[in-house]
Amino acid sequence: MGLSATFALDSALEHWAERLRQRLDLPLLVRCNGNGLRLSRCATEPRVIVDVRNAVGVAALLAPSLDNLGRAYVEGHIDVTGTAGDIIDMAHRLAENGDSSDGKRGWMRRIALKVAGTINHSHTRAADQQAIQYHYDVSNDFYAEWLDPALVYSCAYFERGDETLAEAQEKKIDHILTKLRLQPDQSLLDIGCGWGSLVLRAAQKFGARCVGITLSQNQFDLATERVRATGLADRIDIRLQDYRDVEGKFDRITSIGMFEHVGLKNLSAYFRVIRDSLTPDGWAMNHGITSTDAHNGETSHGAGHFVDQYVFPQGELPHVGTVLTTMQEGGLEPFDIESLRRHYARTLQCWSDAFEAKAERLKSLVAEKTWRIWRMYLIGSQWAFDNDEISLFQVLCRRAGQQAASLPWSRRWIYDDAGS
Q1: Does residue 150 have a pLDDT over 80?
Q2: Beta carbons within 10 angstroms of residue 266's beta carbon
């Protein structure tokens, strides 16, 4: 980089820092070309230090959407030092005061990006499998370092709030299976079964006969191994299979953290598959992340675009209203809905804390870029749940058109049966 270019970048950063200091008092230090710029108005020690490596890093700071800042960090244009909580707090404060989009959300942004060719959600079988394997086939050892011992990769259930992550994940599975009134020898289909934790619990504690399907090769291999090791191969069938190819009828169906990968335009068809796979008196549970934007918009300041590009290709989050509408369009009757937003914020805090504590070990398992992506994803998602940008709902449903007399009078069974 020539002297004139270096001078121009330094001058631009100095002007940017001075402008921000007039509006904010941030314990943030930005270092570039040997110069240090403090964004605090007093001698407060910086809690976050940003080292700018090149002109791309400078550009990200000058237009600090969460997308730009996240991309610059992941691609190595900036390095960031500080606690995970301080880093995400600083990123949001910069974005709120410098994002030219003013943090706007909603369907217009998604349409604009699709028209521009920036995102392409085709959701063919091949595209969905590629997207699933991109995220879930990073490494089983990688996930084992920061998930609970059972490898449950979805929102936990903190009934009291003081449970360990492992306890809360087991309670989540029991909460789901109890809600479903799962009985011995009933058949259960788990769509997106992960590493097999739910079907293992369903067979061991509830005596169910289970089929678990996944598109992740790593999850399929380990789940199959775990089933064999527990001697439950006669009760659990793990398949590497697309949900559109499932045949047969099931008394109970679970979809845990799966429908986020289906695509907004495919939700009605997805729920139709669930409806057609249920026995006439069967129940299903959809447990998934939702947008809090009524028009199915992405999270603010470009965070949703970052996640789509680096974390969950093909992922789309519907508003809970869209979930209920498309369920009905798919021939299902939703009859019990529960929000677990606070629970997912706590789950992500547990994951992020473990991720930060195991940083050096994780960096030995995956590339630096991958480590940076998941670091930002975990702390960013925790912030989004904490601040009502995304949520999570469990929705119980059954085939539509049945008599009201077959519905429960109250929700008491969920809690009265929980200890049985």
Answers
A1: yes
A2: 19
